[in-house]
Structures are given as C-alpha cells and as structure tokens.
Protein 1
Amino acid sequence: MRKWIVRIVLGVAAVMMVGAVSSYLFIDRELTRMYGGLTEVADPALSKEGMDSYAIFHVNVLAPEGDRFLPDQIVTIRDGEIRSVGNSTTIPRGIPSLVGRDMYLVPGFTDSHVHLWESENDLLLYVANGVTQVRDMNSLPVNLRWRDEIEGSRIGPDIFAVAPQFATFGPMEGAFVGWVQHKTIVRTAEQVDKAVQDYVAKGYDALKASSYLDREGYIALSAAAAKHDIPLVGHLPVATGLEDLWASHQSEVAHVEEFVKALDREFGGYGADTAEDFLTFVRERSEDVADQMIAHDISVTSTLELIDSFQRQKSDLQTELGAAKLVYENPGIAEGTVITSRGMGWLPDVNIYRWPDQWDDDRKARSRLYWQTYAEAQHILFEAFMARGVAIMTGTDANVPVRVPGFSLHEEMAALQAAGMSPAQILASATSVPGDFMGTSTGQVRPGQKANLVLLRENPLEDIGATDAIEMVIIGGSVFNRKDLDQMLDTVKAANDASRTVPIPVAEGG
Ligand SMILES: [Zn+2]
C-alpha cells in the first residue's frame, strides 16, 4: 500500500514537472516569435568589402551648419572615414571615384528611438532607408552582439544600445514582466546600483527609466547613472513629477508625449469633459517646461507620428495598416501572441490600440476626443520646445504599431515638417543633434567624421520628402548603390512572406 502511494505521488509530481517545463518552453518560443526571432533571416548576398579609399566628386554637400549645400564638391573617404571635403577643381588621381553630379550628399540618418528586439532583418531595412545609426531603446544581449558584428563585417546601422528599462514590480509580477517584457526589475536602491554596474560592465551605452519605476528607484537610478558615468534616458516614471526630472541626471526624454503625461498628472487627470481646460493648462505650462529643458540641458525625442496615429489606429485601423509598409514589418511582431500583447501586436485581432468591438458610439466619441486632445497637447509642447531651441532628436518608436523600421523615419520627418520644423532643422534633428548627444563622430559631412552618408537625388532643404529619394548609402565607408538597397528590401519582403501566418491587409486599390 505504502509503495503504491509513493508511486502515485511521484507520478503526479513528474507529470507536473513535465507540464511546467513544456509550458515554459511553449511560452518562451511564443515570446521569441513575438519579438521577431523566428522570422526567416534575409540574405541579400551583399558584402561590406570594397574600396578602402575613394572619392565622390561633382556632388552637392550639406554644409556642416546644415543650412545649405556647397556646390560641386569632392569628398574623399579612406578606411571608413571622411578625409577631405573641397571644391571639385582638385580631383585626386589614382583612387576610384564616384560621380555625384546633380545629387545631394547628407550625413546618414539616425532614428533616436527604435526597438530592434530579435528582428534581425530590421538591420537591412534601416540601411536601405539611409538610417545609418539607431538608438535601440531596450537592448537585449543579441543586440549587443549585432552592434559588435556591425563594427566588423555585418551589414547594419551603428547601434547605440540602451539597457533594458528599469521598472518596479512585486516579486511574482516582476518575475513575469522581467521575462516577458525584457525589463530590469528593481525594488531597492542596492538592486538598482548592482544592475547599473552589471550593464556598464557589459558595455551598454545608456540606462532607461520606464514608466513603471517607483520614485525611490528613479532617484536611485539617476544617482547610479551619475556615479557610473553613463547617460540616463527614457520615460518620466508615472510615480514622479517634472520636479523630479529637473532634479535628476536624466539627459534625454524619449517622447514629447512624456510631458503630456506629466502635465496630465499635474492637472489631475483630464477627460473628454475637461479636454479644453487641459489644453489651456498645457499652453500655460509649456513655456516653463521648455525653459527648464534648456536650463537642465535635456534633449527630447520626437515620436510625433506614433502619438498622432493613436486616434487613427483606434478609429480606422484598416486604413492605417493599409498605408503602412506592412510587407516589410516582421510578421512575428505584427502578428503578436496570445501570451501578451502589451507593447506589441499590429494586426486587427491583436492591435494594442484599437477600440474594443463592444464599445458604443458615445464611448467611441469620448475616446476620440480624448486622444485628439492628447495629440494636440503634444503639438503645443513640441511648438514650445521648437520656439525655445530645445535639442530635438527624430525618433519613431519603430516596431511599435504601425511604425515600420527605416520607413518610419521618413514618415516622422514629414510629420516634423507638418509640425512647423524647417527642413534644415529636421535634417539636424536626424543627424548632427543625435550625433552630439551620443558622442559619436557622425552627423556632419566633414573630415574626421565616420563615413556614414546618404546620396539623394533631390534637395532635402527644399522639401524634406527628398530624404527617401536615395541613390546610395555609405556605412563606415562601405558603399551600397540603389540596386543593392532594393536587393535588401526584396529579400526582407520574401523572408517575411515565407514566415507569415496571418495575411496582412492590403491598401485600398493596392
Ligand atoms: Zn519605445
């Protein structure tokens, strides 16, 4: 009898163990899929090998001040660096040359807010769109590996890797959130300091505060960032106020939207009934906020188009999806997963922004007003930042619905133009401003800078829309012509098509 009881108990325990392990494996695989890691990897059969030394001549070069093109220039490049920029009258002999007649040479673009996750093909999408540098706002170990490989033979943009964002959760929820959302879970100042030390040792470039970090954790993170001499960027946690930001060592805020949220907390939480009062409050506060940004030398990343799209995704998702270059988006990310959809999920069944079907017209009308007000508040703040000369960096939140990596940078630049920025200011916000922020030798076409360059067929100072008229992209001196760039895009599209399990909506008439 005893023997049988022991056998039954052992048997039940074994079944439970197998169940736990297989659920763990199932969930882990689903997460890998959701982060894009199961999508076929594109191989465009291209190499970074090529000319070590060459010249581009008869080309219009964006002046270091960024406000005009210097006509008929010659640019020499050696070992991945710009060596000289001068008039085309002195063409050097004995090195290969590329003719840039009637074309416009600008620094490679930076998207200052992206999420690479495990979506390897994104690296090609960035290059094909002239994005030679990204700030990855929640880097995983695999992204650090790509960063290092890109310094060698791998094709991709330079990666500025921000460590997994810091958040505070209780032990059980924290374990789940840390696993599923790749966040750094901390509950004490000691844990913060230890995690920061670990990230510095691993070679991350910056630390990020999430919305879910408690106030004590935020203050500890700011202190640890200063102590270990690593930048602190990201959100302004919900548990904090603007006074905490001004008192911190944080040097960048990842969205203009963060200030809408902070002012909403000051206001006491607006709703459809108080929308106008809230906008009046934002107008009253915006100049002081901008002045404080200047006084504390804090930069802001735009992500205007993402926030403007919230209301459109809620009310008319099909049109929004139809307009996005969905064929290039990693299908794992677009399709989401049943495990968790937070922060992911683009398609109608999983879209994180769309209204629940059961909402009635009245509820939808109130929601529409709420989100229109939210976007308007963002624009009021953005205009105040522009007027005061706050350092603004172009960022898209790529891989958040419906911002397709690479393409979304050009959409963001169009949104910045619509919001009142001049083409010269927009170019700066996507080149020299982030270059200064990251301390990389990028963002200007001048000797000593890394040869990250884009050759355009049209003049972007006349219309920022010219930034996607790309003839050639140069990364660290390696040249990719239009045919190469198309090859990158075609192979990514084919890899996505082969990995897709849910059909994507097609644009009206497309
Ligand atoms: Zn983000």
Protein 2
Amino acid sequence: MTAPLGRCGRMLAPVSSLRMGVRTCSHIGEGVPYQKTMKDKKDSSSGGSVPEYADVVVVGGGSLGCNTLYHLAKLGATNTVLLEAHKLTAGTTWHTAGLLWRLRPNDTEIALINTTREMLCRLEEETGINPGWINNGGLFIASSEKRLKEYQRLQTVGRVNGVESYILGPTETRDLYPLMNVKDITGTLYCPGDGTMDPAGLCQALTRWATQAGARVFEECPVTEIRTQETLLGGWRVTEVHTPRGIIKTNAVVNATGCWANDIAGLVGVEVPLTPMKHAYVVTEKIPGIENMPNVRDHDASVYLRLQGDALSVGGYEVNPIFLDKLDKDFSFGLYELDWDVFGAHIEGAINRVPVLESTGIKSTVCGPESFTPDHKPVMGEDPNVEGFFHCAGFNSSGMMLGGGCGDQMARWVLHGRPDLDMFGYDIRRYHPPLNNNKAWVAARSHESYAKNYSIVFPHDEPLAGRGQRKSAVHQELENAGCVFQERHGWERPGWFASSPMPVLPYDWYGAYETTPLHAEDPYKALLFNDYTFDFPSHHSQIQQECLACRERVAIFDMSYFGKYFLTGPDAQKAADWIFSANMARQPGATIYTCMLNAKGGVEADLTVSVCEGGSGSACDPAFDGRGFYLAAGGAAALQNLAHVTKEIRKNKWNVSLLDHTDDMSLLSVQGRHSRTILQELTPDDLGNDSFPFSSHKVITVAGHTVRALRVSFVGELGWELHVPNESAPAVYHAVMEAGKPWGITNAGYRAIDSLSCEKGYRHWHGDVRPDDTPLEAGLAFTCKLKTDTNFLGRAAVERQKAEGIKRKLVTLTLQDSTQPLWGLEAIVRDGQIVGYARRAEYAFALGRAIAYGYVNRPEGGAVNKEFLSTGRWHLESMGVSLPATVHLRPPFDPKNLRLKGDYEYVIETERSSALVS
Ligand SMILES: Cc1cc2nc3c(=O)[nH]c(=O)nc-3n(C[C@H](O)[C@H](O)[C@H](O)COP(=O)(O)OP(=O)(O)OC[C@H]3O[C@@H](n4cnc5c(N)ncnc54)[C@H](O)[C@@H]3O)c2cc1C
C-alpha cells in the first residue's frame, strides 16, 4: 500500500516513473471522486441459494450487467438473475469518469447514447434513486481546419438525429469557458446535451427497478461453470450455470464480465477478442471558477477534462498504454498505482488548454482495468457456435454512455433473437473466429485502436497492426503489381494499385514501446496519410484510371476474401426456400441475387446463390447427391451470412451439410466489355449470351484449370467471377493477364469496386442496406418471391409493409457541382428540411460527379412516393456547406442494364436522362 499521490500535494506536472501493483482503496475520496460507492453499501442482494431455473442469467454486475437486467425487465422478462462475483460495480464500473458525449459518427451510436440519456433523465422518478446525471454540456476542441471539418460532419449527423450542437469560434468558446486558452484553437463543437453520471447511483437504480419487477441479484456469487449440450453442425447450446450457491438451469446467459469476459467465455469453449489495459484519470484540487463548465474533449491533445464539482478530472488516451496480461479473479474495487511515465503525456495538453491547471494540485488518481478490442467497438451478440450464449463486453472506455442503449439492445437480442438497431458494428460475427484467440493479433490491433481513439475519423483508413493474417493465393502477384492492400476480416484485399510494391511492414507500435523502434521508412503508412483528408486524395486519379479501365476496357479484381459455402443434403431445398428471400425453385445453372431477412423483414445479408448439382469433387465442384446451393457472400460479412444460415438450420433441425470453402478457393472477377473475348481465348466452353447468359454459372476450364464461372457483376459490366481452387489461382490469374494484355486489362481494387458499384446502384450490405432496412425500403423488392406461394423468413413482415405503404425509401442523389467530393453522413435536405442522410457516397467517375445513397422520410409522415421525390429543391449538406443535388428514382448509370447483357453498342446514358429533379 502506498500513500495516494494527491495527498503529497502533487502539482499537475510530470514526475519520475512509478510502476507499482494493484492496491485496494481504503478511503472514499482517496481514489474515485464519488461521494458514495457500492463498496460501502450493505449487501442488498438476494441471500441464500440461486433459483433452479431462470429465463436469462446475466453474469457481471457492472454497467452492462445492470443495464441488461433493467432492460430485460422493461421488456417484461423478470424471471431473470444477475450474478456478481463480488459487489455490484466492483469491476471497471467503479472507476469510471462517467462521461456521456452525444455526438458520434454514425446513427446507431447516437441512438444508443440517446437511450442511455433518456434513461438517466427518468431513473430517479422511476426508482427514487438519483443516477447522478449532470447535464453540463460538452465541448470538442479543434486545433486545425481538418479537425473542424470533422466536427462539422459530426454536427450534421447530429442534426439529422435530433442532437443539438453549435460550432463556436475562439471568442465564443472563451465566453462559454473563461478559464480556457483559446489562442491555438480553430473552433469548437458545443453539445449542450452532454453530461456525466454516477456509477453507483446508476447501478443501484437499475437493479432496484429490475428487482422490484421480479428479477433477482446475487452478489458474492461467482459463476464457476457453464454446461452446454451439443446441437447440429458442430454447435452447442447453454443449459446450466453453476455457482457456489447452486445451479441454475437456463437457455440464455449474458456474459457482461468486462475484463474477465474470457474467463466466462472459456467455460463454453469460445474466446472474446479483447485485452485488458490500464486506463486512468486524475482528480484535481478545487479550481475557482470551474463550476458549471462543460466537459472538454481536446482530441488533438488526446485529453479530456471532466467537471468534478469544483474541480476537474483529467484523462486521455496514451500511445503506450499498459497491458494487463492476467487479471486477478479477486479484483474488487481495486486501484492501480498511476504510471506517470505513461500518464504524463496528458499533462502538457491539459495545462495548455486550461492553464490554471499548472498550479493546481492533484487530489487523487484513478487507474483501473478496462477491456479494449481490436476495432475499439464492443463485442456483443449471440455466439455463432453456442446458442444462448450472449457476449456483452469490451466496452473500450464507453461502457457508461453506451450502457443504456446496449443493455436495451442486448435485452432485445436475447428475447427477440435480434436487436432492433443495426448492431453489426458491435456483433461478434464481424470477427474471424480463429483471430479471436490470437492474443498477439488482439493485443496489437487493440493497441492501435486505443492509441488512435482521438484521431480524426477520415472516410478511408486502414490499420497497420496485425496485418497479413489471411492472404489470397495471388497475394504476391498483386503485391508485385503495386497493390495497396486493405484489411477486412483478417484478409488482405486489394485497395488500389500504386506504381511500385507497397508491402505492409510488421507493426512497429508507432514507436510507443522501446522494444519496437519506429520504422525509419514505411511507404505503405505514408500512402495511408494521403488519405487523411476531406478532399480528394492524391491517388484519386489512380482510382479513376482503374474505374475507367473497367468501364472502357476490362479489369481484374481479386475478391477472394468472399465467403464461399455449399449447402447440400436432403433438406437443402427446404432450407434454401425458407432462408433466401428470392425464388430458389430454379434449374441448376441459375445464379440468383437474393437477400436473407429477419422476422421483421430486415435485411440480414445479401449474396448470390447458385443452384448446382454434385460434381467432380474439387473445391469449386464438390461431390454430393441431389441439388445443392453455392453461396458467395461479401467477405466482411461472411461470418454474419454463415451464422444466419446455420442458425436457421439448427432451429429447424434440417438434415443438411454446410461446406465452407472460403479458405481453399480464390475468386477472380474479370469485368468489362472485353472480358468475354479474353476468357473465350482461355476456355473451350461457349461464353456467348445464349449458352452462358447473365445470372448463370457453369463449371468450365480456364487455361486448363477447373473453375466455377459465375456470369455476374458487382460493377455493372459484362463479366465473370471465376471461383478457382487456390492451387489453380496463380496460373489462371497469369493466363488472364497475358490474354488481356492486348485489350488493356488492368488490376483494380476495392476502392474502384466501391465507386463502380455505387455508380451502378448496387447495394452494399451494412451501408445502403442493413438489418434495420427492409427490401421494399431499399429498392430490393425484386429479391422477394412474393408472387410464389413459398413462405420465407421475413415474408409476413414484408407483405405487411407492402400493404401499409413505404414510409422511407433509399434514394440516389448526385451533386450538380462535379468538383465536390462526398464522403457519406451528409444531410439530405428537401426544400430546406432535413429528410434523411447519406449512408454512403463515392465519386462516380463515368458520371463525372459524386453520388450518394440515403433513406428519406416525409417530414409530415406518409408514403415516400414519386410525387414527393420529383418535386422540391434538393441539397446535400456537407460539413456545413449546402450543395445542390439531383434526385434519381433509378441509379443514373446504365439504367437499362445493357452492359450486363454485353450490349455496348449504345451511348452511355447520363444522369440527366433519368433525373427527375434538377
Ligand atoms: C479510468 C476509466 C475511465 C472511464 N471513463 C468512462 C467515461 O467517461 N464514459 C464511459 O462511458 N465509460 C468510461 N469508462 C469505461 C466504463 O467504465 C466501462 O466501459 C464500463 O464500466 C464497463 O462495464 P462492464 O459492465 O462491461 O464491466 P465491469 O464494470 O468490469 O463489470 C464486470 C463485472 O463482472 C464481475 N465478474 C467477473 N467475473 C465474474 C464471475 N466469474 N462471476 C460473476 N461475476 C463476475 C466483476 O466482478 C465485475 O463487477 C472508463 C473506464 C475507466 C477505467
């Protein structure tokens, strides 16, 4: 035990290194700045034995566990139990600074935080317990024009979602916060609705409400074992939770144990990709004049200043955080000694922003464990392999502000099978399972995300940590050709092509730790920096060349990171009919673009499904009896697709097999008007329109290798996807490049695919279409077999919506000014009123202007119809600037799909011909 630093009268200035172990805080006020904590509460939980059965068992009594229990009860589920190893809040929640910032760069997070905020505002009335909500507002500080642009972007997305905020100049900022140095600031973003909460009051109020409704809370009751039972396709489901106070039979367990999440996940044989690190703030002595000031986030200095009565708490994100390899199971209300070598990085920034801090003493330090994840987003949702086991951990220092919203969504996930909001960004299914227990990968990626937490969120960025986990069979060929790779789902996929090789170097941890010096030269990293702009990057012209090569000649795309699955077996047709929204009663050889829906009609995935028969036994042509279905799903959502299909199969107990050929097959897509000529040179099979029409597939030989060729296109051109066993992929790639030379074939990457597909109007799942959008809203009604008698998952909801009328609709907009970029998150404005926002935007090179997609509503309610869309004056509001836009009912590029049919004998229809409004 050591004396608290604050008692030594420390000023807020750097001192020498102190690395010490965990200590237990013995006096309130010595550590955390809260008046009352749960540590001092008399045990108010249920005594005795745990019940024999519960509908849901929540493990962990921190912010997330308490929030989940409360929201379960709000939804009527009260035969529930919360088990906490020590006392409520004993883990990370006790340490929290409790800040809530309303503005986030996406609508889901804004909605989650709104839920928390609304709950904080009503909890006292509901329970008689004050959750400590102080609504003193928040100020974000910009020290550069780029940062200010980011804030303007945030302000816009806030406006769309009803969050009040203001951009202030230096003088206005000084008027609001007289103690602030504003000499070096460009501007600030002021959000009056921000504030702070008290962890003990909050958790007590949440559990009070839940227990009064019937839920039960057991403190000093650790979970020691979870029993499971085997199901189909190698899956498991939870059956029992064991504690020293008895065994609870249950079908649902929520793992809300924060930094300890892997102890609990390990009990059912799975791993959560998170790593505990030390995270800290210091509490200052009294600062005259600070009362009632808003909280401050100085992103460029990586520092926050939280109002703490008549003082401040100062914290931030360091480049060299300290990892906690193993956490003590007995950790309860523990504090770590602050390491000033690490924390000292924040001092200069804090003093610069509020100079009076230089002469202010530190009353106490708070250093606790927090769980951080590879992409700085929580890990939630049902485990893909263990039915009834729900993840709810890894909250990256946002578990208080996200707690209410995530507790609410968690409760819906458990009770309804799916959350209401688009939670894919938090879903464990966004990860590749083998990476979850790759400790080195998790640590490196989590470090990078932590260190960059306050960096500007640019539309294009890539991680430098943990790269090279999954590579396609032609990776080296692409690297030699100058490929600038992107990372998705562990895969290296092509981004765009520079003029010389740009390998990704081993992670140097940004030079943060002595053991790994910063690379002297890192050309790949230097290229990434060129993307750190809200203007066109310097390689815009290179991406243009790739796009136009595809539009005018031919391009090859390595899309090997796609998920590739064969669904076969006696019940395969039955399963396909139910799971896929499109008609699967088609002849072998058909390739069908389809959605997979949830019960509410939301789009869980979109993919192509090819109807096939058993073949020779190679990876692209497996042997099986009867009809089968070949599923090709976008790589970043591959596991989401697989998990959705698997879940339905298990639920319905169908007799099928699901063969995963993702890792042993490559996907080379050859697209453009010369694709047929090139491929025809390499295959004896007839590629003509009659024998190989659009939306069909065949097993053929290309350059002597067996491949499954699908005549489909994600870029709107004549083209084929070649699904090739890995061992054949390099030879096929070289043969295509050689045969394509006279036709000007070019390598192209996903930056081009994103632009081309956006220009053509093809939907990106999780961008233009998500689980909270229906096919009718997304313009994908054609993927639903409503004219057949075949029932499918989500059909009833889609039919209901069709009958009621569509109240929001995805529309296409192009900018009238061809020199302006768009990045997404722009407000869509009709006659001066915000009617939606851009989910996705790209520069469309053939159209010669930026293009955006977003859902629009009628401000007065009612159906979004042609009349609404074809009247009014439309603008996109981008970073505070209003840009005149044109609305299109159909995407403006090749609306008749002539290119897909190989009919290039026509003049490209420009956006003008299909524009409804200009
Ligand atoms: C210094 C600091 C400042 C922060 N500031 C903010 C902020 O300003 N705003 C914000 O939103 N977030 C902030 N956070 C983050 C936030 O506090 C956390 O994200 C949140 O408290 C995590 O809550 P949790 O419920 O996931 O985990 P925890 O609070 O750690 O709860 C997990 C619980 O599980 C229990 N447990 C473990 N094993 C078992 C077992 N076998 N059986 C039963 N129970 C078990 C533990 O005892 C613990 O009580 C901060 C964090 C720190 C450290």
